[in-house]
Design a protein that fits this description.
Number of domains: 4
Largest sheet: 7 strands, parallel
Catalytic activity: ATP + H2O = ADP + phosphate + H(+)
Oligomer: single chain
Number of helices: 19
InterPro entries: CsdA_RRM, DbpA/CsdA_RNA-bd_dom, DEAD/DEAH_box_helicase_dom, DEAD/DEAH_RhlB, DEAD_box_RNA_helicases, DeaD_dimer, DEAD_helicase_DeaD, Helicase_ATP-bd
Strand content: 5-15%
Biased composition (Basic and acidic residues): 454-466
Family: Belongs to the DEAD box helicase family. DeaD/CsdA subfamily.
EC number: 3.6.4.13
CATH topology of the largest domain: Rossmann fold
CATH superfamily of the largest domain: P-loop containing nucleotide triphosphate hydrolases
Strand order of the largest sheet: 3-4-2-5-6-1-7
Length: 576
């Protein structure tokens, strides 16, 4: 049995600097229990039998050691990850791509049923380092000899019990029999039924075990809610929640140290008393921020998990998970900062549509249903401001000596022939003009529904203008970019809109013309798009492929990330 307390950092492991840099940028600070228990064994070359629930950080537990051992010079499958579903295969592939962001010319390919076989064959011919696939499609490629496992070093069975439940276990064994005898196997499963143990006994060599008990936490004193929506609208959603929630003090959890500073500054600009709390701050500064929270001179801390560890301040009434945590244990630790000393607490979780799997894992870990919340409307905010203003007036009448001010109002009324109501109205306007009781009406951030995946505007076909200019200004005021997903990959405009809006904080309404070609697409994006948004888009995947975004020149398409295809003229088909 492995301890659930992690006492070392990722930098203490024998992981290469480019991978360490990537996980620092992502926001990982210390290994989760399953990562701490698994990574040293896998780095040492042992087979592994890992038992841990969904949402505990299993993907990094096997992905980081695999990436650490990849020979980038050899463009052939060196690792194979078997996953029970298309969705999980895509998630795992995206995680690999994220961890490998600083590994030059790294190539990974997700393969699953329902995707174009021609596209998969094309990528396999160009060569890839890691395959992530469902058992059935992997078998198809092995039978037609389009996939060779001769150079395989590592095989991972992810969620083995789920593959058993779905009837894939015989397929898995068939694949195992087609792997080289000298290869490392890591088998991960939430439960360990006898059939899975038999598979492990037949195919794993003296495996080490990493078993993490499923820790369930009951949090009856904490009311849990979640908002399902795009990451592009999180700041607006948070601002609306702060307007109407009756909170004493609040911790807002984010994944990275940089975001603690950015979000705290944005909240202060909106009139809230907020400060950052992260591991880059000196101990003295961290203690000062916590002391201000205790003394009621600060209301909001924006923190990372490590910086907030052990924080115990009674007046914290709310915890907001602005970024969903990487594992369920971190979530339980986070929301445990509220509901202290017999008081009731509130926990709010922001969830992007692609993060619903983690939401389910959190519900299981906390043994509580997390209820979906609707964002406050413009009317809700106006009513709340009016209530607060009335309460301030009543408190002032009860607590302050207003005799001088009464005489002043009476004098002004006599001199100008004004009623007390007119004077009170003018004073109310002056007091509240920086925070109007009826705020300017803005559209609420889009709540996620199945139909909200559809693009909100009609996209017209558009031919690129003047090939001599690389940066093409569009009629819609945008700039035209090329991305490496198209019709042959099964991409649709809604996929492109959803991915760009979610990952680059660009509202869907700001995304212009989209044109689908066979092997790529073009999309018009705002001319004033921040550089950091473009950097985020460089790491985005759509329909299982990295989009490899760059400015559209109107010339023959450049080679995509997976290799160098035959050059084609980059013009759309008619009626495309």
């Amino acid at each position: 049995m492995q301890s659930t307390e992690t006492t070392f950092s990722f930098s203490d492991l024998a992981i290469s600097p480019p991978i360490l840099q990537a996980i620092r940028e992502i926001g990982y600070e210390i290994p989760s229990p399953i990562q701490a228990a698994s990574i040293p064994y896998l780095l040492a070359g042992h087979d592994l039998l890992g038992q841990a629930q969904t949402g505990t950080g299993k993907t990094a537990a096997f992905a980081l050691p695999i990436l650490n051992g990849i020979d980038l010079e050899r463009r052939e499958p060196q690792a194979l990850v078997l996953a029970p579903t298309r969705e999980l295969a895509l998630q795992v592939a995206e995680a690999f791509q994220s961890y490998a962001r600083h590994l030059p010319d790294f190539h990974i390919l997700p393969i699953y049923g329902g995707q174009s076989m021609d596209a998969q064959l094309r990528h396999l011919r160009r060569g890839v380092h890691v395959i992530v696939g469902t058992p059935g499609r992997v078998m198809d490629h092995l039978r037609r000899k389009s996939l060779s496992l001769d150079s395989l070093r590592t095989l991972v069975l992810d969620e083995a019990d789920e593959m058993l439940r779905m009837g894939f276990i015989e397929d898995v064994e068939w694949i195992l029999e087609h792997t080289p005898p000298q290869r490392q196997i890591a088998l991960f499963s939430a439960t360990m039924p006898e059939v899975i143990r038999k598979v492990a006994k037949r195919h794993l060599r003296s495996p080490k075990e990493a078993k993490i008990e499923a820790k369930t936490a009951t949090v009856e004193a904490i009311t849990q809610r979640y908002w399902l929506g795009s990451s592009a609208h999180k700041l607006d959603a948070l601002t609306r929640i702060l307007e109407v929630e009756d909170f004493d003090a609040m911790i807002i959890f984010v994944r990275t140290k940089v975001l603690t500073e950015e979000l705290a500054e944005k909240l202060e600009a909106r009139g809230y008393s907020a400060a950052a709390l992260n591991g880059d701050m000196s101990q003295a500064l961290r203690e000062k921020a916590v002391d201000r929270l205790k003394k009621n001179t600060l209301d909001i801390l924006v923190a990372t998990d490590v910086a907030a560890r052990g924080l115990d301040v009674e007046r914290i009434s709310h915890v907001v998970n602005y970024d969903i945590p990487y594992d369920t244990e971190a979530y339980v630790h986070r929301i445990g900062r509220t509901g202290r000393a017999g008081r009731k607490g509130q926990a709010i979780l922001f969830v992007a549509p692609r993060e619903k799997r983690m939401l389910s894992a959190i519900e299981k870990a906390t043994r509580q249903r997390i209820t979906e919340m609707r964002l406050p409307t413009h009317q809700d905010i106006a009513e709340r401001r009016v209530e607060q203003f009335k309460a301030q007036v009543m408190a002032t009448l009860e607590e302050e000596d207003l005799e001088f001010f009464r005489r002043l109002v009476q004098q002004l009324g006599r001199e100008q022939g004004l009623s007390p109501t007119d004077i009170a109205a003018a004073l109310t306007f002056l007091v509240q003009k920086d925070r109007p009781l009826i705020p300017d009406e803005k559209p609420a951030p889009a709540e996620y529904t199945p139909s909200s995946r559809e693009p909100q505007k009609k996209f017209r076909d558009s031919e690129p203008r003047d090939k001599k200019h690389k940066r093409k200004e569009r009629e819609d005021g945008g700039v035209l970019y090329r991305i490496d997903v198209g019709r042959n990959d099964g991409a649709a405009p809604k996929d492109i809109v959803g991915a760009i809006a979610n990952e680059a904080d660009i509202p869907g309404s700001s995304i212009g013309h989209i044109k689908l070609y066979d092997d790529f697409s073009t999309v018009s994006l705002p001319a004033d798009m921040p550089k950091k948004s473009l950097k985020r888009l460089e790491k985005v995947w759509i329909v299982g492929k990295p989009i490899n975004i760059r400015l559209w020149t109107g010339d023959a398409p450049a080679a995509p990330a997976f290799g160098k295809p035959k050059q084609k003229k980059g013009y759309p088909k008619k009626n495309g």
